[in-house]
Amino acid sequence: MVLDSALAVIQNYIRAEVTDRFFSVLADETTDRAGREQLAIIFRYATQEEGRWCVREDPVRIVDLLREIKKGEEETEGEVRMTGENIGEAILKKVNELNLSGTSRMVGCGFDGAAAMASQSVGAAAVLKRDNPLCDYYHCAMHALNLCVAACTDQADVRACLTTVKALTTFFNTSAKRAEALQRAVERFCPEQTRSKLVSLCTTRFLERHDAILCMCQLLPAVTKCLDEMKNWYSTETRGKAIQLLSCISTPSFLVALFSLEAITAVVLPVARSLQAKSMDVSTAMEGLKACTRILQSWNEDPDSVFNEVISKTREVAEALDVELRPPRCAGRSQYRANAGECGDAVEYYRVNCFLPLLHSVLRQLQARFGERQQASFKLYGLLPAHMKSWEEVESATKRYTAFLDQPHQLKVEHKVWMNMWKGKAETARPKSAVAALDACPAELLPNINRLLQILAALPVTTAEPERLFSRVTLTETCIRATMSEERLEALCLLQVYRQCPALTVDSVLQQFATSPTQRRLGPIF
Fold it and tell me: What's the number of domains the chain is made of?
């Protein structure tokens, strides 16, 4: 009951903060320890703190999705349909329960790429847009980036390399005896390395995937020596698996694919790290993705310079492992298609058949998922002083939001004034993000530009905040507390998030408890 009162205080605080603000809804799902389908709902909006603008992503609700869908269905028997329509209705219901004044200020929704969430016709995004016409769907940039890198498995050698890396990590990490043997091998053959354990290869998280590849490159000499020693172990299972894995990693195709992956994923790594930052700005995300694409494009135009570094690393490791760098056997006469590359030249063969397909695959995915067509939704990006565009280029985007502007007929003049304010200013002095531009845009002088910048700041970039909230759910709902009610779980998690909330005091919680219907049923406290 006290937890319910504290939760009510938090919700009142969120309502006061978000009211009359432009906001976006972020949502994601996961299954908790009790087997419940938990839906996290986050509000993203721009606000002022201590006189300066900032972007906040505030968790507002944690919902047992199956239970909510059951409430909305007339028949409780049979299958509970987790359709986009039902999920969208559940999200919309929980948002409306906060009694926000003007939910029409919802300008975006950010989900992962699941069809039930993202479909523009029958997904949750379609339900939100039906009631809020300006609420556009934005695919989580972190998920999209992970899908771009996952496309590298289209190449056969890379796919085999990742399978071998996963088998190696499983082989060593699932046995304390084998893990200790690898640790001894690292101390003997790779004493300069700080790691002594292989990192598990995660198929859904890019950062963990790159760490697994990098760790394998660093510990490969120790892994090879350790597997060679295990061939003489007493356990027949260990001996057989060690021989199999040693045969897999002692091939030129594995080594070339491994170091090619290391080179290409290293370019994407800084962008992936930045996208997981709190309250990531749209402009910062787009700039990082553009820079990553430009680097890979330059490699595509001149691949030899990069591939020479890859092949030199491969040769160095191959010599240490006593592996001959040679191409596989090619057909002397190809009846249906020509051999790719020179079969007698190992460097040319692996450049054409391994490195270039990997590079082209990742680059093509980046251009498709973050190209000009996808960036059309961020046309307001042209209002930022560091990326200022002409009126003709931003006019189409501003027309979408004329309903939010007090004097839309003055917008063209305000744009001209806004451009003149930054004319002649150095590049370093021009704000590159929406919140920095808001600090330099006086609402009294340029009210329409100010509002458009608030909308730009509120547009969703990633769904990293719902993922962080799920971490709190896991920490709160331990094995011995897995039977707690949904209301108690929601209150405990939000109390952790808002422990520094200025509105959450002992007096405010007691006041809320004293005026709640629950207290009236219990009678006087004292």
Answer: 3
- Pair 508, 9: CB distance under 8 Å: yes
And the tokens for 212? 């697994």
382-409: buried (b, 16+ CB within 10 Å) or exposed (e) per residue?
A: bbbbbebbeeeebeebbebbeebbeeee
Q: What is the largest CA-CA distance in the chain?
A: 96
Please check whether residue 376 lies inside any domain of the structure.
no
Rounded to a whole number of angstroms, the distance between the first and last alpha carbons of the chain is 16
Q: At 408, which amino acid appears?
A: P
298 lies in the same domain as 152 = yes
Kind of pairing, strands 106-111 and 136-139? Answer: parallel
Q: In what helix (H) or strand (E) does residue 226 lie, and over which residues does it extend?
A: helix 206-230
- Tally of residues, the chain: 526
Helices (H), 233-281: 236-249, 252-275
For 139, the enclosing helix (H) or strand (E) is strand 136-139
Instruction: Evaluate if pTM is beyond 0.90.
Output: no
For residue 375, being part of any structural domain is answered with no
Domain boundary (317, 336, 370) is at 370
3-state secondary structure of 257: helix
Quickly state the pLDDT bin for 3 (edges 50, 70, 90).
confident
- Is residue 72 domain-resident? yes
How many whole angstroms separate alpha carbon 99 and alpha carbon 290?
40
Same-domain status, 95 and 213: no
| CA-CA-CA-CA torsion sign (70, 72, 75, 81) | negative
Letter string b/e over residues 135-159, b meaning 16 or more CB atoms within 10 A of that residue's CB: bbbbbbbbbbbbbbbbbbbebebbe
Domain housing 486? 2-140+460-522
The sign of the torsion formed by the CA atoms of 278, 282, 285, 287 equals negative
Q: Are 240 and 232 in contact (CB under 8 A)?
A: no
Question: Which residues is 249 bridged to in the sheet?
Answer: none
Q: pLDDT tens-digit profile of 390-436?
A: 888 888 888 888 888 888 889 999 999 999 999 888 888 888 888 99
Fill in the amino acid letter for 178.
R
